Amino acid sequence: MTRGGGGWTLISNAFTVLDFNETAEKTLEEYAVGFGSAEEADLWFGLDLISLYSNYQMMSLRLNLYRCAHNGVEAKWTDCTYKQFAVSGKTDEYRVTIPEVCRGTEIDYYDGWARWDLSKTGPKFLAVDNDNSTSHCSSTFRNTGWWYDT
């Protein structure tokens, strides 16, 4: 990947693999091992590999976000880069650590993704089969992520 100076590893592609029909009702185990096609850059890398890589050396996380048109504002792409990013392993329920706010063109929502107290370890990864959060958003929307527990 060449955006933002290059050197990025693609761990997800939101307009292909993360299309709702492709990810709906996938289990935590499916997200742990990963799925999709690396040859076509159509994949979810897998929580186990993300954890392994992000704990082996310091990593950054860059999000390229597509904001749909709303209230007369045109649709647009924004980006958000977190200087540090790590995911714990299975025994810690793949919790995410992002100690600083993002930098980039994502300004409408201030921080495009992390909506928890960044001075603490973030939420665990929720899928349809391990959603014991108070909101039950992962189960309700039949999808997954770290943001459903915030």
UniProtKB/TrEMBL annotation:
It comes from the Eukaryota. It holds the Pfam family Fibrinogen_C. InterPro entries: Fibrinogen-like_C, Fibrinogen_a/b/g_C_1, Fibrinogen_a/b/g_C_dom, Fibrinogen_C-term_domain. Coiled coil: none annotated. PANTHER family: FIBRINOGEN/TENASCIN/ANGIOPOEITIN (PTHR19143). This is Fibrinogen C-terminal domain-containing protein. The gene is WBGene00275420.
